[in-house]
């Protein structure tokens, strides 16, 4: 069985973009792959997190993974901070990447361009991500479009390590869905739907009031020609809604376009609002069921216990090869 690994930061309320671009694909992969899914809480520290909020977001994210359909019996679900080896491997890998390479990362460049004071963590972030990935030798790393560049850097670092010291890491392949890899803001469809945006009008949150979410779909920004067809460049708003529709119904965009020939945006948006509402309802019901009692703590404990031995073994191998270890352990 091929292996897959991915993580999400607990930095805010989980959005429909996270769900469509990441969580829903994870669920569909679990039958076919051995999956490692974690909560990237060390990564979330790159920007200040109010502690109580961070705890709440972390719990919500674990619960949402499961509510969305991930099965903790089959998937290794864990907290990044529970496996201490990630930070240590991150340090070594950070020593193998150049300032130039890190400076070219779009996520860093975007944040740096904002002219605010930014922490060094944002700059070093890819090295920790490289450690998260290389620790477990996954074949594939499913991510949204915005993370592809980081996985490509990870490949370069793995190759560099392997050629400098001998074969140690599997070189992973990023997996970005053709549809749904970049869900856009509903009010500004040329911008990614993002949980760290100040205004939430264009962003749907999975645990939000369902009627509010439906209203957001109905009032999504679209063009004025009233014809439902996919054209990302000239009709970004309607194309974004078509992607959401397609993913949530498992239907092709062509098929959906055909259904709406001669029908206007009102009907299309009304139907989509219902589809989104039903999906959110299903997830929220399950979320309520699993957030009582100690179930989530048990899942995380079991996940960390499965991940830790692999991480220890990999780190020991790395340290042996690099010459850090001087005695046989
Ligand atoms: P921010 O919005 O603050 O940049 P984020 O949501 O991108 O945060 P993560 O929580 O780490 O950051 O993202 C988790 C996963 O969701 C990643 O694989 C990311 O690529 C994916 N993702 C995030 N936003 C979208 C989006 N709008 N469309 C599709 N996938 C997305
Ligand atoms: N950088 C990712 C979160 C993340 C991740 C990872 C994803 C941290 N480590 C390892 C895949 C594999 C993000 O911001 N979405």
Give the rounded overall mean pLDDT: 95
Helix content: 40-55%
Strand segment tally: 5
Under CATH at level 1, the class of the largest domain stands as Alpha Beta
Span between termini: 30 Å
Class inferred from helices and paired strands: mainly alpha
Radius of gyration: 21 Å
Number of domains: 2
Reading the helices and strands in chain order gives EHEHHEHHHHEHEHHHHH
The fold-level CATH name of the largest domain is Rossmann fold
Bound small-molecule species:
adenosine-5'-triphosphate, L-tryptophanamide
Largest beta sheet, briefly? 3 strands, parallel
Q: Biggest sheet, strands in spatial order?
A: 1-2-3
What is the approximate shape? Answer: globular
Number of helices: 13
| Overall CATH architecture of the largest domain | 3-Layer(aba) Sandwich
């Amino acid at each position: 069985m091929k292996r897959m690994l991915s993580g999400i930061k607990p930095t805010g309320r989980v959005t429909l973009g996270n769900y469509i671009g990441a969580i829903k694909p994870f669920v569909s992969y679990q039958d076919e792959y051995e999956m490692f899914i974690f909560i990237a809480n060390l990564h979330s520290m790159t920007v200040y997190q109010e502690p109580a909020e961070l705890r709440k977001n972390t719990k919500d994210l674990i619960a949402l993974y499961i509510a969305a359909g991930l099965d903790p019996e089959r998937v290794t679900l864990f907290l990044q901070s529970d496996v201490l080896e990630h930070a240590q491997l991150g340090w070594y890998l950070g020593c193998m990447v150049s300032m130039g390479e890190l400076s070219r990362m779009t996520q860093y460049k975007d944040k740096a361009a904002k002219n605010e004071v930014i922490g060094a963590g944002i700059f070093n972030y890819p090295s920790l991500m490289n450690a998260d990935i290389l620790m477990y030798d996954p074949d594939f790393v499913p991510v949204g479009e915005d993370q592809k560049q980081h996985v490509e850097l990870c490949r370069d670092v793995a190759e560099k390590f392997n050629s400098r010291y001998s074969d140690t890491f599997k070189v992973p392949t990023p997996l970005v869905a053709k549809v749904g890899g970049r869900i856009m803001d509903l009010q500004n469809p040329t911008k990614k739907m993002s949980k760290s945006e100040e205004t939430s009008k264009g962003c749907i949150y999975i645990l939000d009031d369902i009627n509010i979410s439906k209203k957001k779909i109905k009032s999504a920004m679209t063009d004025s020609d009233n014809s439902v067809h996919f054209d990302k460049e000239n009709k970004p708003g309607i194309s974004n809604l078509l992607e959401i529709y397609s993913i949530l119904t498992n239907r092709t965009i062509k098929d959906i376009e055909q259904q709406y020939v001669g029908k206007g945006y009102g009907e299309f948006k009304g139907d989509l609002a219902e589809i989104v509402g039903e999906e959110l309802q299903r997830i929220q019901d399950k979320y309520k069921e699993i957030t009582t009692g100690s179930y989530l703590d048990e899942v995380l404990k079991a996940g960390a216990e499965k991940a830790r031995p692999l991480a220890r073994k990999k780190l020991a191998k790395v340290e042996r090869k690099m010459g850090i270890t001087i005695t046989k352990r």
